[in-house]
Design a protein that fits this description.
Blueprint (H helix, E strand, L loop, with lengths): L1 E11 L6 E7 L5 E5 L2 H11 L9 H11 L2 E12 L2 E10 L2 E7 L1 H11 L3 E4 H9 L11 H8 L3 H4 L5
Parallel strand pairs: 4-7
Antiparallel strand pairs: 1-2, 1-7, 2-3, 4-5, 5-6
Helix pairs in contact: 1-3, 2-3
C-alpha cells in the first residue's frame, strides 16, 4: 500500500548544507526528509515557484517526451529504502498499458510536480523511517537533525528558498 504525500518544505540541512525535500503524509503529521542534489532541488524549487525558463530544462524535456509519446504520468512512488538510498518509480500509462520506470526520488518528484500528479511513499518505507529514530542516516545526520525537522512549524516549512 502506498501513502500519498505532499511537499511541505524544501530547505538546506544545517549540518551538511545539502538540500532536503520534506514530504508530509496528507493524512497525518508524518514527515519524510529526502536529501537531494543541488540541481535536483533547484528543479523542484523552480516548479514550486512556477519559474519559466527560455528553453526546456531536463525535467521539462522529459515531461514533453512523455506527452509526445502519448503517455500520461499517473504518479511518482518512493518505493524502497536501500541502506541510506531511496528508490523511486514513475507510473506511466500509454495506450492503456501501465509502464513502471525506475527513477531517482528527486527526478520523480520534479516530474510529478510538472505533470500535476500525486506523489506516494510505500508504506514499508514510511514505517522503516519512523522506526529508525535518526531517519535515513548520512554521516552528519542523526538525532539533532531529526529534532530540528520535528520542531519545524508551518511557517518554517513554507519557505522554498535555496
Amino acid at each position: 500500500m502506498n501513502i500519498e504525500v505532499r511537499i511541505c518544505g524544501l530547505m538546506m540541512d544545517p549540518a551538511t548544507n545539502m538540500p532536503i525535500v520534506v514530504l508530509k503524509d496528507v493524512a497525518s503529521e508524518t514527515v519524510l526528509p529526502i536529501w537531494v542534489g543541488f540541481f535536483e532541488a533547484n528543479a523542484i524549487a523552480m516548479e514550486i515557484e512556477k519559474l519559466a525558463t527560455p528553453r526546456p530544462m531536463t525535467h521539462d524535456l522529459t515531461r514533453n517526451l512523455i506527452h509526445d509519446l502519448k503517455a500520461q504520468m499517473e504518479r511518482a512512488v518512493i518505493t524502497e529504502l536501500n541502506g541510506d538510498t531511496y528508490l523511486a518509480s514513475l507510473w506511466l500509462r500509454q495506450e492503456g498499458e501501465l509502464l513502471v520506470v525506475d527513477a531517482r526520488p528527486s527526478d520523480a518528484i520534479a516530474l510529478a510536480l510538472r505533470s500535476d500528479c500525486p506523489i506516494y511513499v510505500a508504506e514499508e518505507v514510511m514505517k522503516a523511517v519512523n522506526l529508525n529514530q535518526s531517519g535515513p542516516a548520512t554521516p552528519a545526520t542523526g538525532e539533532p537533525l531529526r529534532g530540528w525537522l520535528e520542531g519545524l512549524n508551518d511557517e518554517d516549512l513554507g519557505h522554498y528558498k535555496m
